[in-house]
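Notes, p. 3: input format for complexes.
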Amino acid sequence: MAGIYIHIPFCKSKCGYCGFYSLPSTKLKDRFLEALKQEIVQRKDYLSPSPVCCVANATPKAINTIYFGGGTPSLLGTNEIGDLLHLINTTYSVANEPEITLEANPDTLSLEYLEDLRNLGINRLSIGIQSFFDNDLQYLGRKHNAEHARQCLDWAKQVGFENISIDLIYGLPTSNAEQWNRNLDIFFSYNLPHLSAYALTLEPNAILTKQIELGKAQPINEDDALRDYEILCSRAAENGYLHYEISNFCRRGMHSKHNASYWFGTQYAGFGPSAHSYDGNSRQWNVSNMEDYCDALLSPSRNNGACPPVGKALKEKELLSLEQQYDEYVMLCLRTHWGIDLKWLKREMSERFSDYCQQQALPLIAQGRLTQTREFLHLTDRQMLFADGVAEELFW
Ligand code: SF4
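Output follows (396 residues plus iron/sulfur cluster):
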């Protein structure tokens, strides 16, 4: 099993709170797509197991999930998305019925566009709605309005999308408990299988952070986020949603398979500027700069034809020691409903790691900060919000 992530680094404009790598224009789209296709082909062996001794033809890993993230992937034309899917299908060994997700923003969606996406084989939509209230959307610097957000959900259902997720943001100073509850009411009224809900955080270089520092935007209050998180946990449970990761809720069996692969150490290749990849032993991440990314892939003369290019670096790489792999496993699994599997640690990493983890866990369990159910160490809904602090105490 393996996954492919494609980062589409364009947006109509920059949202106030955004910390992702994206450009507020599509001016460089054609050159980017050319470079992206190069990368998809050049790195086709990344997900194949390394040949051991004389095993020359190691079987490539089947791709189970493909994820178009961003940025705003729905700024691409459906012909461009279709070309990328065709290239992936002809370059990689893609499993039957892979999960294919596309992140979309309401301001880029129409009925026809959604119908075309469906016909291309996109079978999961993740729509960046963020709020069903215009005052929240204006505060966040989003380009759509609440009415259009609801219209997009109607269209997506009309053209046959069943696996739809939306993003909502809570802890906003423009909202209150009543408005957050009404946001959730609207989400539940659509009976969608998946919700990603995030507390608003202030990214160091985001526009909103600077506006707040200058007194030009309302500051955020951590207590509002805690209040909304409590409401979210209770109402999601009452409505039959499984809280399977700090920020993610789903109907049973409808979790994001692609995102779950990040939490469970499945290999994935990330293409596009700033995209991350993991091959089981090392992580690597592409340069977060469009010009450098395109130059590295499209100007081999700069590098005397060397591969990987040496002129402008395409990527950085970090080999993970066993101890670092243990820390990552602990950190990622603790954020999920499934938690840390001590049996898995013993089987895949050795008794040294499972014993260490169990020992470190004992005081946390005694303090009520961690829960153990048979071989699993996990956090309850409310404990999950403090996952990072608990993970630190379990680290090697
Ligand atoms: S649409 Fe998403 S990626 Fe683009 S600026 Fe807004 S938050 Fe950032």
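The longest strand covers residues 94-104.
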